Amino acid sequence: MLTTLWYLSTAIRGYLRFYMPTNRAVDWLRTPRRLKWAIPVALIATPVYLGLTALAIAFAARPDLGWLNVLAFLLFWNAMKFAWMAVLSVPLMLARVLGRVARPGLA
To answer: What single-letter DSSP state applies at residue 35?
Structure first.
């Protein structure tokens, strides 16, 4: 039973990692050559997603539109992914720069 759940969660993770656009964008931003774009993209994407979240929450308060709560959660989750990528990009860039300084001939 545990093995089946493990394989199922691995399959779902692989599907979401490959087909969801924000996951693909975050993976693209994590590459060493594109890490410099993580903060500018996060500064644009995070407020946009938070604004869309607020809009979805406002519409979800209306009668018969409760299903928009799922969309609001998804939008908030995507905003947090980009915000977290902005936070993580600084140490990743510093580690890359310090690694280049330690071994100047290998970069």
So the answer is: G
Predicted confidence at residue 101, as pLDDT, reads 65
Regions of the chain where pLDDT drops below 70? 101-107
**95 exposure class (CB count in 10 Å sphere: 0-12, 13-18, 19+):** exposed
Q: How far is CA 45 from the centre of its chain?
A: 10
Distance between CA atoms of residues 74 and 68, nearest Å:
10
Q: What is the pTM of this model?
A: 0.77
d(CA 23, CA 51): 20
pLDDT for residue 51? 97
Burial letters for 31-53: b for 16+ Cβ neighbours within 10 Å, e otherwise?
A: eeeebeebbebbeebbeebbebb
